[in-house]
Specification:
Blueprint: H1 8-15, H2 21-67, H3 73-83
């Protein structure tokens, strides 16, 4: 009010009358809705980043398997055997 050149009382009489309870409820509702939307967007961004990383790893795996002629069924089987815990072989 001081910056506008009048008292707080005058400010309340002049401006606050335009902001009834319904408009205030609407304004608070919009703020809450925006916060919810932001949280949803943050979660979606995180999920997309994780999916992106997963796809990058898959691309690297496919590049590796294409460039490695020894990566045939026999080598894969041998690798699988080596990665199986001893008690489960």
């Amino acid at each position: 009010a001081d910056n506008l050149g009048h008292t707080v009382d005058e400010h309340t009489k002049t401006y606050q009358r335009w902001f009834g309870i319904e408009n205030r409820k609407k304004a608070f509702g919009e703020v809450i809705s925006q916060k919810s939307t932001i949280e949803l967007q943050k979660n979606e961004i995180l999920a997309l980043r994780m999916e992106n990383e997963k796809l990058r790893l898959e691309v690297e795996r496919l590049k590796f398997s294409e460039n490695s002629p020894r990566m045939n069924a026999e080598a894969t089987s041998s690798w699988s055997y080596r990665c199986t815990p001893v008690g489960m072989r």
